[in-house]
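Tutorial, part two.
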Amino acid sequence: MSRAFLVVMDSVGIGGAPDAAQFTSDGHPDTGANTVAHIAQACAAGRAEEGRTGPLNLPTLDALGLGAATRLASGDETPNLNATPTGYWGAATEHSLGKDTPSGHWEMAGLPVPWEWGFFPDTRPSFPEDLIREITALGGIDGILGNCHAAGTAIIDELGALHLQTGFPICYTSVDSVFQVAAHEHHFGLQRLLSFCETIAPLLHSMKIGRVIARPFVGDETSGFTRTTNRKDFAIMPPKPVLTNWVQDAGRTVYGIGKIGDIFSMQGIDQSVKGTDAALMDHLHSLADTAEDGSLTFANFVEFDSLYGHRRDVAGYARALEWFDGQIAQLLPKLRPDDLLIITADHGNDPTWFGTDHTRERVPVLCHGPKTGSLGICNFTDIAASIAAHLNIPNLGSGRSFL
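Running the prediction step on this input gives:
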């Protein structure tokens, strides 16, 4: 019986979204944003030399079709990504009204988001006074810090010391539908932070805010503050069954790697593991050896997005892509002849773009398995339909299989 591996390179977009003009980053339309192409162009021009050098080197992903998919999606040049693909490749278009993690993941799992997400304005303060009163009362705290749009690493640098003095959690948001809470793992307490976020999540979900995210950190003012890997997302539960449910309801096992369990509120997830991308990659390699017949392994590698995209670190993003490429080269020989591997993304986060937010882009669909050639432009929901077809289970979504 066949197995399926769905691997999400978080934020590795390839440009060309037909509705990019409807989305903005720092007040600029996302028209023209292209994460992969712009990184490749920067590398070729010698503008991404920190910790690496030369043109972007992704021989495995390019052979699967990354360069070809990028050119198909957007027409943009992809220096040093010009291989003739040996995989089965294409580009996917998102239709949900968001360029965020839940929108992308729900849709690739067969469920376009059936509502418009709630958002907070990019003002100071961002949160309404009545919401703050309810949050502080529910959470048993005397006040909050932040109350604005911010990048996560920047705001703990700015407010970490004051957080230690006051004990108030740092609450912030972004262009995404999120309410994020940063607090020190030891001074505030990790379990207290998680309990606080879990307690206030239903209130935020009632406003169609997609996620309440606990963002623990450690350190001090002298040595600096660093976020830990104990992040936890408290996400709205999908209103209908998604791919993970379809697989589990068919009596198969579903493995979640990274934040997949959080994104889907553990719906349809049998086993879940978190950690750094390096640790998660080790787990993916292990499951290639051990996952049983008929299973689905659904993985998210977030550090492209969290460490490099939002920080607009082109060289760091290129290093992460090159590391990932080498890891996939080692993974492919472990797959069985009848396995299906799909490598894709959930949105873009062009590190050459304006601001610090996600960018609206198409995403690559790179398949290793039963077919070769171009699958063309598809929809996010077609990914779920194709995995269902491969695993021979019912497709309960609106997508069509490209297999």
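The longest strand covers residues 211-220. In part three we will examine how such features are distributed along the chain.
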